[in-house]
User: What shape does this take?
Amino acid sequence: MEKFVVHGGSSLSGNVNISGSKNASLPILAATLLTREQCVIRRVPDVSDTNYMLQILHNLGAEVERASGNVIIKCERIRGHEAPYDLVRKMRASVCVMGPLLARHNRADVSLPGGCVIGDRPIDLHLRGLEGLGAEVTVEGGNVHLEARYGLNGDTLDMAGKNGATVLGTDNVMMAAVLAKGTTVINGAACEPEVVDLANFLIAMGAKISGAGTPRIEIEGVSELGGVEHTVIPDRIEAGTFLVAGAMAAPEGITLRRVNPEHLSSVTEVLEQCGCEIQQSEKSMTIQQAKNPVGANITTEPYPGFPTDMQAQMCALFATTPGLSVVKDTIFPQRFMHASEMKRMGANIEVSDGTAVINGVEQLSAAPVMASDLRASAALLLAGLTAKGATEISRVYHIDRGYEHIDDKLIGLGAEIERLPA
Ligand code: EPU
Assistant: This one.
């Protein structure tokens, strides 16, 4: 195990390249199961979650090659239909092999993901959608078994749940429906850019999909899909995390390159409200720390609203922004593990009912803290950048799940971070 030691107080400046999106890569890698032909996927970030997905595909019989951000996959012969518990428990997104396996083999066995620190994460909506296409679902011994003995048939489905749309649920059903007989309509579909990227990948393979990026997706089933080359969209959450780093510690500004500013409008709107100056071009963004920062109130929502995956990082910013800020997470109301760790650094944060009320203090002070999940770890790293002293963050494997070389990228901007054996 490794830990980070973050020496607070450095100013950030310069440029950083944003990686390809983790959350777009995962379902796209799973979608390669839908064809016997070779797929080349570019800009897949080298993070442990994409490695877990490649392990699952390899176990299923895929030929996988990986070199400098490009992944070449050929799922010519699939020798199973199973995603085992030891991989699913490491990465919940493993469930997105369900849709493609069902479409290709009329069968999928996937271990049910348990709860996780960001809250209860059921897959009832995934299963409801796949049942709607004709799969029989049984749950036994912690595994979900799906079978469509006579193949899948398109239908009109309502995928919305009590907390809104489901991203990976929409992905799963879309991947199953592309090879189903007839037309599928997904109402209440997730509109996230990662869903659109998957739809574009499937369309390039020969699928007939319209409406991705809106709450109504229509899919006309085809009998076969082919190989394709695709470049994954930039990671909007990694970009958002670097924007917050700039908002906290870049009086002269930092520039993010290889981003899509359109995907970040809800984040930039809040950062501008807080007093930061942001300039954008087609593929780059420059942010400068506010001269007179003020707090803000945010509520997480499905895209294009404020992303839950940026909530923890905003808490880090607000912890040292003068005045009161209120952060409400409606998607994962229990996703506030970072708050108690930040309190150990002197933050004034009270959390109840999925809402954090933060009264900004002048400066945090370094303390040993523990990373609990991906975005909470990023928030602690951000908090450490401006804290007084050396913040030790243990369990950094959480951050390595979804950020490609975040320590090296921050060091490149002038931060002082050591990665040490814990
Ligand atoms: N939900 C249900 N039933 C379901 C599925 C979801 O009730 O069957 C609820 C969830 O409990 C939650 C809401 O619906 O309240 C939205 O969850 P969603 O299914 O959209 O989450 P996900 O698809 O499992 C993806 C991202 C998450 C991100 C969420 C929300 C990937 C691999 N993961 O998860 O990313 O927080 O969408 O935007 O794409 C992260 O990157 O740190 C991360 C957790």
Summary: The chain has two domains: 2-19+293-421, 22-231. The mean pLDDT is 95. The longest strand covers residues 2-7.
